[in-house]
Design goal:
With about 270 residues, the protein is α+β, with helices and mostly antiparallel strands. It has one helix at about 5-45, and strands at about 55-65, 70-80, 90-95, 105, 115-120, 125-130, 155-165, 170-180, 185-195, 200-205, 210-225, 225-235, 245-255. It has a single domain (about 45-270), classed as Lipoprotein localisation LolA/LolB/LppX (outer membrane lipoprotein receptor (LolB), chain A, Clam), CATH 2.50.20.10.
């Protein structure tokens, strides 16, 4: 016969297990709900940026060291929207002389690693960017090679965190975790405004899960009555004190680019 005290102890333990199971069930349900909402927000961001076909722009890249000293690079950027895959982009450096003629070509992928190449005029050869090196700095800037690829849903898992006000805008705060094992980031926290689903801020966390960089896109302009583009993007490395600013001008849409304009074999001949 089980003693009364033993019976009460077993009953208490059973109740505790049931309560713990209930809490875990509620927690997993909430997590699944937040994941679904995070994905829904990300899908809306992507959906609002479809159909732009192609763009060309001039960009100033301003590099700053921790002391505030600046160096400026003049760049031309061409992009092509690719149906059922990631976008293609071509970045050509015109100034200063030490980087003039450098060209970077990126084929973003919906699934699998992106294809990226860079032409270095000093050695007169095209170098493929290895998947393992996508976290390396792009041309000495605070942007990594993986930051230069287009945003694709399949590259992340998502979770809605909370609502918050930023830059005078009501915004969703979403966590996105890269699916690429070679990514330089464990996670990114993204602020998306509710009015137009524009990115207001991104925090990048390194492989130790420490805050590494903060991106702030500003000075948004609308094109073709639909597409929003930030004319300024500031990337600050909070660990080193360095920063990079991208200033976009002369942005044009539907210029008539074709697949042949994004040919890695022609990188050497670009001017």
């Amino acid at each position: 016969m089980i003693k009364q005290s033993t019976f009460m102890s077993l009953k208490t333990r059973a109740i505790s297990v049931i309560c713990l199971f209930s809490l875990l069930t509620v927690g997993s349900h909430a997590t699944a709900k937040d994941a679904a909402k995070g994905l829904e927000i990300a899908k809306e961001v992507k959906a609002r940026d479809k159909g732009w076909v192609d763009t060309s722009a001039e960009t100033q890249m301003i590099l700053r060291n921790p002391s505030g000293d600046e160096s400026i690079r003049e760049i031309r950027v061409k992009t092509l929207e690719v149906e059922d895959d990631g976008d293609k982009s071509l970045t050509i450096f015109d100034q200063p002389r030490d980087v003039a003629g450098t060209a970077f070509l990126s084929f973003s992928k919906v699934s699998g690693p992106d294809d990226q190449w860079i032409y270095l005029p000093a050695v007169k050869r095209v170098k493929r960017i290895a998947t393992r090196n996508k976290s390396s700095p792009f041309m000495g800037s605070e942007f990594a090679f993986e930051d230069m690829a287009s945003f694709e849903l399949e590259k992340f898992t998502f979770a809605y965190l909370r609502d918050e006000t930023i830059n005078g805008e009501e915004a969703f705060v979403v966590e996105q975790i890269p699916t690429d094992k070679y990514s330089g980031y464990t996670r990114q926290i993204v602020w998306v405004d509710k009015s137009h689903y524009r990115i207001q801020k991104i925090e990048f966390y390194d492989r130790k899960n420490d805050l590494l960089k903060i991106l702030k896109p500003t000075e948004y302009k609308q094109y073709l009555g639909k597409y929003w583009r930030a004319m300024r993007a500031d990337m600050e490395n909070v660990q080193t004190g360095k920063s990079t600013t991208l200033l976009t001008s002369n942005l044009e849409f539907k210029t008539g680019f074709e697949q042949s304009d994004f040919d890695k074999n022609a990188l050497r001949r670009l001017r």
